[in-house]
Amino acid sequence: MNHRAIALGLACLASFVTHGAAAQGLRPSGAAGAGLSRTSPAAPSFTLPAPGAGTALRQADFIVAVVNSEPVTNNEVRSRAERVAQQMAQQGGKLPPREALAREVLERLIVEKIQLQLAREAGMRVDDFAVGQAEESVAKQNSVSVAEMHRRLAADGISKERFREELRNQLLLQRLRERDVQSRVRVSDLDVDQYLREQQSSADASKVEINLGHILVRVPENASPDQVAERQARAQRAADKVRAGEDFAAVAREFSDAPEAKTAGGLLGLRPADRYPELFVSATAQLPVGGIAGPVRSGAGFHVLKMADKSTGGVSTLVIQSHARHILLRTGPQLTESAAAARLADYRRRIVAGRADFAELAREHSQDGSAKQGGDLGWANPGRYVPEFEQAMGALKPGEVSEPLVSRFGVHLIQLVARREAKLTQREQRDMARDTVREKKVEEAFTNWLQELRGRAYVEYREAPQ
């Protein structure tokens, strides 16, 4: 299980584990707004339990392990294991034996507690505003209101307070990793050169990579025949629109329930075919670049697919670029996230009412290097910014202004200026290759960092979890 699965999957965090879709691209070093460069996994994203799922009855609780004097209880392991099992079942995965799953979950909980202890010792904290923002994001990803989300969680034995605390912990873990791992990884020109040479030497017919555009029209569990027919008709309308020549990204934003519709115009990113679902590969095998397949049915719903690009081991050359500007307020002892968000919400009201100009406010108040340019960030490839920024930007139409949002850099207000489909220059392709190398280095650094933390911690095993 990779570090995203450790961080997200075991807490019912699924979306970016299963949809790591957007093509990656770092902002060039030293450019205005460089602090927004993507250096971390996506923000937490929960899959809600199915309505009426319910949890098994709890046995009497007991301690199964002690981590630096902090206990891990049997109920913690059972609760997490049940949710992991439920999520795997919903996704059609094969469940491991119960004892093996419990042992795996226990080990992940131990590593998670070690990290949380380190974060708290360092004085790191997550403001209530950030938790609330993550809560709203989870509800939106699951197409329910926050109130309905809490109702479903409560029916599954998860209280609002417990859910918010888990969100807070996952955000805290993310910030710790950004501080101790992602921010310290460096990629040299020699690293990029070596990667490109390796890609070129391995480029043959069997190494073809594809970049698919994806529209998902989700079908609820236990849907009635009428519901299925309505969902299929919606997918067919989307397919008809793109076959008629309408912009795929615009249709994806209108119809798709998949997260990449908002963040990358529906593009899943260039990758080897074996890293795509077999259904997607077989449906698009005979398509030329620009061809459309679908709707095709899966357990999740109906899919419309576009062969956006093919490559023999290089970097995707076709992307949806976004041109945005932002106002950044950095938080700290003198300015909490809540206070910064309130200030930016006031700016937004004034801008929307026509009583203030975004660029002027950015020049006057933004604490980012782009302030002198009125907050202008220029044209950006998918994956250029941290995930929460990308998600908020992806949900905007040209001219719209986002609500305040929190990232590791502070609190932002974003205005989308325009979008376009573009082919990458050689320099941009090299930048994206650099990001691919960086992702690999981050994976390795994260694994080593976890092993070091685990090796320094005191862990005492008590009774086996049941």
Short description, anyone?
By secondary structure, this protein is of the alpha+beta class.
Architecture overview:
There is one protein chain. The chain has 466 residues and is an alpha+beta fold. The chain folds into three domains: 197 residues, Triger factor/SurA peptide-binding fold (Orthogonal Bundle); 108 residues, Chitinase A, domain 3 (Roll); 105 residues, Chitinase A, domain 3 (Roll), CATH 3.10.50.40. The chain is built from 16 helices and eleven strands. It has a four-stranded antiparallel beta sheet. A four-stranded antiparallel beta sheet has the order 8-7-10-9. A three-stranded antiparallel beta sheet has the order 2-1-11. β5 and β6 form a beta hairpin. α3 packs across α4, α4 packs across α7 and α5 packs across α7. It is globular and about 65 Å long.
Rounded to an integer, what's the Rg over CA atoms? 23 Å
Shape by Cα distribution:
globular
One letter per element, helices H and strands E, the order comes to HHEEHHHHHHEHHHEHEEEHHEHEEHE
Adjacency order of strands in the biggest sheet: 4-3-6-5
Query: Which spans have pLDDT < 50 for at least 5 consecutive residues?
Result: 1-35, 39-43, 52-58
Helix content range: 40-55%
CATH homology superfamily name of the largest domain: Porin chaperone SurA, peptide-binding domain
Overall strand count: 11
What fraction of the residues are assigned to beta strands by DSSP?
A: 15-25%
Tally of individual domains: 3
The assigned structural class equals alpha+beta
At CATH's second level, what is the architecture of the largest domain?
Orthogonal Bundle
- The residue-averaged pLDDT reads 80
CATH topology of the largest domain: Triger factor/SurA peptide-binding fold
The CATH top-level class label of the largest domain: Mainly Alpha
**Main beta-sheet annotation:** 4 strands, antiparallel
Distance between the termini: 22 Å
Please count the helical segments: 16
